[in-house]
Amino acid sequence: MSISGLNTLKKGQHYTAKELDSFVSTTEAVVLSNNDNQLFTDPEREYKVTHEFNGFFEHSMEDAEKHFREKKAYVVEKV
């Protein structure tokens, strides 16, 4: 898979941490991992996309309200 052309992730597919790093750096998206803060520590480690969402709710500190953000969010798990 070409790292430079990665502009979306597909549920069920495997990606290396290097590919996910490139994706996050160039795309307006959120990636959640079951690997805590170690997602990018091993560039060759593979992750599987288990869920894909079109947005999420977020609490705003500015107005103390919850707002829906239309932003792609993906859940990945270590393979």
User: Main sheet?
Assistant: 4 strands, mixed
The proportion of residues in beta strands is 35-45%
Number of domains: 1
- Which H/E pattern describes the elements? EHEEEEE
Which structural class do the helices and strands define? mainly beta
Biggest sheet strand line-up: 1-3-6-2
Principal-axis shape equals: elongated
Rg to the nearest angstrom?
A: 14 Å
Oligomer: single chain
CA(first)-CA(last) distance: 17 Å
Identify low-pLDDT runs. Answer: none
The helix tally amounts to 1
Count of individual beta strands: 6
Report the mean per-residue pLDDT as an integer.
92
Helix content: 10-25%
Quick synopsis:
By secondary structure, this protein is mainly beta.
Structure description:
With 79 residues, the protein is mostly beta strands. The protein has one domain. It is 13% helix and 39% strand. Strands 1-3-6-2 form a four-stranded mixed β-sheet. The protein has a two-stranded antiparallel ribbon with strand order 4-5. Strand 4 (56-59) and strand 5 (66-69) form a beta hairpin. It is elongated and about 40 Å long.
